[in-house]
Model the fold of this input.
Amino acid sequence: MLLKIALFAGVIFLIYIFFFKNSRKEEIKKNAPKKVLEGETMVECQACSTFISHKEAIIKDGHFYCSKECARLP
Done:
């Protein structure tokens, strides 16, 4: 009789672990902060249509250029 009660309690415990522990992990994942990828803004060279980082671009007359050579072109 004691063995049946222990076996029954073990089965109930396994069912609890299987159903409720997984749902708690999913709940934790939902509440976790999402990682934000930080990237650079890319701009297109007015002369040759090459894309370059906004930080590295040369700005002349309100237009972006990838190099000094392209900035000299009309």
Notes: The longest strand covers residues 42-44.
